[in-house]
Each structure stands twice: as structure tokens, then as C-alpha cells.
Amino acid sequence: MHIDEKSKDAQLAKDRSEPTGNFLTTDQGIRVEHTDDSLKVGARGPTLLEDFHFREKMTRFDHERIPERVVHARGSAAHGYFQPYESQAKYTRAKFLQDPKKKTPVFVRFSTVAGSRGSADTVRDVRGFAVKFYTEEGNFDLVGNNIPVFFIQDGIKFPDVVHAAKPEPHHEMPQAATAHDSFWDFVSLVPETLHMIMWTMSDRAIPRSYRMMQGFGVHTFRLVDDKNVARFVKFHWKPLLGTHSLVWDEAQKLAGKDPDFHRRDLFEAIEQGDFPEYELGFQIVEEADAQKLGVDLLDATKIIPEEVAPVIPVGKLTLDRNPTNFFAETEQVAFCVANIVPGIDFTDDPLMQARLFSYLDTQLTRLGGPNFAEIPINRPLAPVHNHQQDGFSRHTSNVGRANYFPNSLGGGCPFLASQQQGGFVHTPEQVSGQKLRARPESFKDHYSQAALFFRSLSAPEQEHLIDACRFELGKVETRAIQERVLEHFAKIDALLVSAVAEGLGLPAPKATPVTPKGPPASKALSMEAMKLMTPPSIKTRKVAALVADGVDADELMAVRKELEAQGAQLKVIAKRLGTVKASNGKDVAVDKSAMTTTSVEYDAVFIPGGAASVATLKKDGESRHFVQEAYLHCKTVGASKDADDVLKACEITPTAPGVVSGSIAGNGAALATAFAQAIAKHRHWDRKDHDRVPA
Ligand code: HDD
């Protein structure tokens, strides 16, 4: 069967409804003549029950909502395709991984976990990274997160951890936040959460963009080749734009100023042709080597450090199309860990095993019955034939009378497929043991990898993590919970426990940190270390230029030219929309009025010269706040030599790290180049006065 990157779109197109050039009709196809007044006896009279158009319109409206996802309710999605770099036949017989020319259509949904559907995008949380591959052998769903480990080891604790994290049941607060007693109570009593806690308190939990975060399959899966040889695998997604985060003060402000920040960023980037790209990678472990790793591969609270098993690049995911309709696609898409194709298999990870049950089960309620695989976004491209039937909202009309297997009345059809014909064969595995509820000894170390993570971070990243713990635990009202968490932190790291204890005004328990097994630090855990390993880029970054009448348009253009040449965008911001009059008499178009935008929506700020413009900006409180806020969030600030007065008014020294002033770099092209280089560093943590950041 031929599938290419356009196949899913062609299938979806059959269900699209195009209003252009068509009459308004009822659901029964009756053309509507009037839709602004209900049918009444006289213009001021009672409404008639026979008004079928009113009744249908109102009934349909009343039933528009479906239950939101019990977790990951808030999300955004995009279409795209996956293409392997080369055949992966040596690891797997999965057909979508055999041919470097083959492009498999995908649908990817990113999400937060704890918040409800209308919550803000930039809250501190794990991000979901769920990929549906529409392969010729059926759908493969890789339902991952942007963090490679999980809070718990056994899925039976999932309702507990989610209840603890969600708003508390008596008053339903707080929304989309773990900074409350019940969550930390759970953490303090369940130390297997601690490794994941290190990740969620780190900058990873406040990504700059869905386009700039990693994804992980989390569990150990199996890849199976055509000789039925199985190997363990961990799936990784690495964003080609690098992994970047916000700062906490910025994330909190964005939650109010643009709660759709990540959704908008993804949507706009795709509309502009800046297609997000991620590299799929495999960490492979031969079954015979599993015992030598020092961690149990079935324990989802552990990683395999990349120093121990490198990530092998496998192929690229490109997101190149926004959904046509949010509800039809993003809301109704149903991912399921159990959706795998021949060549991929499960393991006995007890978290994964629970997930194999939960997804289909939750979707029965959320999508109103068992036929949700027929919803266009969920429908496989591979043909579906079986004896499943009936139930709410059945679309398929099965032909014939033989709705059972085996049958002779239907000629034995649909028939079974051997492995050679693409039939799914579970990897044979010897299993025996006592029936019991227990955790293996090999799951019992909860501190080593928490310590490995903390110690692998750069000093600024550690500082952010400590601040996050101070914030979250600072909101906890029960002292005993804070104290219990500190007891755990004492087993992770001396700096961590002392700094957090100090912030909470509690005595630090004596530090007894564990020694991480395996490498003492792992580079791939630190975003700062990873940044040094990837080529610097400002692609798709957004830069604000603050201007007023009298601006030097040539300087503005020189910077715009350089930024755009490197794939970034410059937005001109002034007091009012319309245009400002440049010093050369020309009009400069304004993209945003200062009232409708804010520094937290940009990656850097530029102040061009022009005496009158500079004089206005340095006196204007809103403009000064814009520059200062960007500076305090450690973003690059660029200023023409003639705009040093604005820096001065903002108490910024032109020699501070990440400040690019024309008085030092020289104006024009030199300034533009230096400015772009500084933006490529993302943030300048070495600013000594950054402790002025509010919150
Ligand atoms: Fe889950 C949704 C990822 C553990 C039960 N999960 C959901 C989504 C993602 C993840 C990305 C949203 C999919 C979408 O966009 O529609 N979940 C994970 C990861 C986990 C994990 C990476 C740990 C490795 N989840 C987990 C456990 C259970 C669930 C242990 C239950 C035993 N997850 C669900 C669910 C959801 C879900 C209740 C809610 C909505 C849905 O499935 O369709 O079944």
C-alpha cells in the first residue's frame, strides 16, 4: 500500500465542510431562509415548538462540549511527516523505518498535564509530546513527555499522583500548579517522585516553545527485527532549534498577558513556514547487557545516561501544517500507548502496563463510546476490517452476515495475516513467578539519579531549580510537609537542601548525599551544556524594536536585514499603531502598539538611534519598563551608539553581558552582527545584577 506525507490529508479532506459558495442548511440539508429570529405568533408573541431550526440550533449548541482529558487537557497540535535517515532494519522490522525515501504522515499534540482546557500555557508543568504515526501497518502512537522519567513506578499510583497535583477537592484550587500542600504531601511520602521532581523544578518545566523542547518515550520499549530478535530501546526527540526555556518571572507574567503563548507560537511558526523539526533517536540496549546498566530498565523513574548508551539519530519529524479545525482534530485525537506496529513491542514496566489499559478506557467516556477510531483524525490509513460492530456513533456499515470468526458464510473473511504478511506477533517471553503486590529491590534507589540530574546542571540552572523549590514549597502551608521534603533533599545534594531550607526559614537537615552510580554528571541533562554542543542559531526568534518619531530608519533597517537573513523576526513597537516619522522623513510601519504587547513576548530588544526617538523613549515609563524587564530576564539588549541614554535611563551598563551597544560594537552592520550573535546565546545568566528580577 502506498502512503506518503500527503495521504492523511487526502483522507481528512473527505470530511471537510467548505462554507464558501454554499447555502446555510439544517443538519438534514434543508436550506435556511432566516436564522436571526425564532418562529413566533406575531413579532412580540410566544415562540413555537415547531421551529425545528431553532430547536436543532439550540440543541446542537447545548451539546458542544465533551469531557476534557482527565490529564493533559490543555494542548495544541500540528500535522507533519516523519522520514528516517536510513533503514533501521538492523533493529526493527517496522515498515515506516525501512526506507529513507518514505515520508509517514503524523499528527502531534503537545500539552500541559495538570491544568484544565482553558488554563495558561506557561505554567510550571511537564509537557506532553504525543505523536501518532499513520503507517501502512496501522497507527503507532508514541505518547511521551518532555521529561524522560515519571513521578511513579507503578501505574496503580497514577490516580494518587494526579489527584495530589490537581486542584484540591474541597475548593478546587490552585489551577494548573503543583505549588500546594496536597502535591508536596504526596512527594514527601513517596520518594520515587524525587528524580522527576528535580526535572519539574528545573527550567525544563517552563519551555520557551513547544518547538524548543525535547520529547521522550520514557519507558523502555522493545524493537524487534525480522528474525524476531528483540532489543531494548528508549525513544528520544531532539528539537533542531535546541532546547530552551523561559525564566519563572516571565512564565508567570505570560500566563496573564498571553495565556495562549505556546499555542500561538506553534500556530504562527507553522503559518509562517518555520516548520518545527525534531530528530528521533534510539538508545539501544542489547537484552544481554540490561543487567550491567546499574539501573532497572523497567523502572520509569530512571534514565540511561547518554554516556552509557548514546542516542543514535534515526530520522526527522517535520510539522508543516496546522489543523483545519481545533475540535475535530486536536480535541478529538485519541492517543494510546497500546497502539504499536509490528517491529515494536512493550516491556514489563508496571507503569507502561497500566497505561496500556488506561488510554482506551478513558477515551470511551471522553469520545462517547467505542467507535472513536472512526473519527477522521484517529482513523488509520491502513485498511480496517474486523468483527467489531455497533455502539454509539457507528459510521462503518459492515457488509455481509458473517460477523464472527471463524466463518464459512463470509468465505472465512476477513482472514488472518501471518508474520510475513504483516500480522502482529508478540515477542515470546518466558514469564513465571508468584502472584504478589510488590516492588522489586532494583526499583528502590530513589536518590542517585535525582543527584545525577542536580549535579549535571550549570550553576544558573541549579539556582533556578532551588528558586522553584523555594517558590513551590513556600506556598505549602503545612510545616511538616516542608520538613519531610527537606529530609529527602538532604539525601540528594548539600547545596540543594541548605538553599531550599534557608528559603523556607527552616533548619537544614544534615546532608547525607548519595553518590550517583555510573557517571558523576551527564551533559545531556543540562540545557546549558547542550547549548554548547549545538550550533548557535537565532532562527525564528522574535526581537522587539522600540521606536518613536525621529527614529533612525537606516539603523533599524540594518538590524532588521541581519536578523531576517538569519531567520529571526523584528517587530516594530511604538506608542500607537500606524506609522512613526523617521529622521529621514520616511514613514516606518508599526507592528504593535506598546499597550498591546510586552517584553515577555520577545527574545531580545533593540533600541535604534535618532535623537528625537531616543529622547522620547528615555522619558517614557512603559518603554523603560520594557527594556528593563527584558534585561532582568537576561535577554539580549541591543542599542545604537546614539541610544546609550535609554540604557542609562534603564540603569543598564553598555558593557554588561549580553548588552550590545553601538558605542562599543560600532553602529550599522557591526552592531547588527554582534546583536545577532548575542541573541544566539539565548540568555545571559552571567549578569551580576539579575537578582533584581521581581518575583
Ligand atoms: Fe498519560 C494522556 C503522557 C503516564 C493515563 N498521557 C496523556 C497524554 C500524554 C501522556 C502526552 C496526552 C495525549 C494527548 O495529547 O491526547 N502519561 C504520559 C507519559 C506517562 C504517562 C509520558 C509516563 C511515562 N498516563 C500515565 C499513566 C497513566 C496515564 C501511568 C494511567 C495509568 N494519560 C493517561 C490517560 C490520558 C493520558 C488518563 C488522559 C487523556 C487520554 O489519556 O487520552 O489515559
TrEMBL record:
Q: Write out the biased-composition intervals (Polar residues).
A: 19-28
User: Quick one: where's region Disordered?
Assistant: 1-29
Instruction: Kindly list the cofactors needed.
Output: heme
MF terms (GO), sorted A to Z: catalase activity
What this protein catalyses is: 2 H2O2 = O2 + 2 H2O
Q: At the top level of its lineage, which domain of life is listed?
A: Bacteria
Gene3D superfamilies from the entry?
A: 1.20.1370.20, 3.40.50.880, Catalase core domain
The alphabetized UniProt keywords are: Heme, Hydrogen peroxide, Iron, Metal-binding, Oxidoreductase, Peroxidase
Quote the EC number: 1.11.1.6
For this entry, the protein name equals: Catalase
- What's the source species for this entry? Corallococcus soli
